[in-house]
Amino acid sequence: MMKIMTAMYTMKRGGSYNRFVMMSDAFLEKGWEVYCLSLTPIRVQNAHFYNHVLLYPFRNKESLMAKLTVFFFFPIWSVWIGCRHKINLIVAFGLLYAFLLGFSKWLLRIPMVTFVRGNYSFALRMQNPSRLLLLLNKMIEFCGLLLSNEIITNNYGARNEILKTFRKARNADIRVLYNNIPPMPIQEKQDILQTRGKYGIPENAKVVVTAGVLNRGKNIGTLIKCIPKIGVKDIYVLIAGEGSTKDDLQYKNFVKELARKLDVANHVIFTGWLEKEELWNIYDASDLFVLPSLKEGMPNALLEALGSGLPCIASNIPGNRDILQYEELMFDPLDEKAIMEKIQLTFSDSKFFNKIQELCRERKRVFVFNWKDRMFQTVTTGFDGACQRA
Known about the structure:
This protein is α/β, with parallel strands linked by helices. It folds into two domains: 3-180 and 370-389, Glycogen Phosphorylase B (Rossmann fold, 3-Layer(aba) Sandwich), CATH 3.40.50.2000; 189-366, Glycogen Phosphorylase B (Rossmann fold). Helices cover 47% and strands 16% of the residues. The protein has a seven-stranded parallel β-sheet, with helices on both faces. Strands 10-9-8-11-12-13 form a six-stranded parallel β-sheet, with helices on both faces. Strand 1, helix 1 (15-29) and strand 2 form a beta-alpha-beta unit. Helix 3 packs across helix 4 (131-147), helix 7 packs across helix 12 and helix 12 (336-348) packs across helix 13 (350-366). The two termini are 19 Å apart.
């Protein structure tokens, strides 16, 4: 029986963590054994999933001490797990984990496949990093990539950045595996009216929805500024999602205050974090999905909005561009006027609305596939070559 070793510090809400569980499930469904190192329990119900939880005596698993414990102990611990269980393949779900598990890969001569989720640089996701911390992050990223036999990104922007980094360092085997659109149920009209009623939205109102982890990178403030200028009567904006850091909470408060200053607070609804079924209900009850992010990897929220049949527009940045491609469906995230005009056209010009709806249907078809099967095929195809090199 083939065995893989992976790691996840602790599970949080979000698309990346859902993909980690899907990745584990894919190997388990193919009869592989999965050995996962973590600081908190990983909820995967399968007899062949072995969760090795690091004994950490303190309650706060998000503290600096907890992170340093993971940083120093995971490399040594992974060697012991890899040697004891005769691991065949290491799968690192992120560059930090590639760095942490890289010692095992090197010492035990086990091939390693690394998934790069979202932006190439995880340093970019930090808020105001110091120069020293930024340098440390870059070193960790570089070492993680250098130690990997195979690298799998979920967008071409990340792939191109990695190729630039490794142009002279090595011939990196870098593949792209897009996220997919999961199977989604279709709601009846009565259910749609019920969803609108739940959030206090009139039946005939126009509803714009955006979703994701609520932080500065989502650029929600710019979307809020557009509302008074759109000129559409009875327009509501649903903001689905929640932040996870102190800075995220400060940004949410800033956006709420901005809505009050612009006198649109009654038409801006913060739903908080939603389970995917409730989010899909909101998509079905909305008229337009808008994602004005400043940076993205391969946003599941946008893919799921496409999957629900909702017309979508988003910022013209890597990740979003991989999904939408057409200029009609994208805008400059720093151009408030461009965002406002796209929303305005959608609600006032039936020809434009029909156009973006048809383009969205076309893009949807590209992303309807079995991600687990394709992921397994992508990893194991590269695994054969990695075994020969290791």
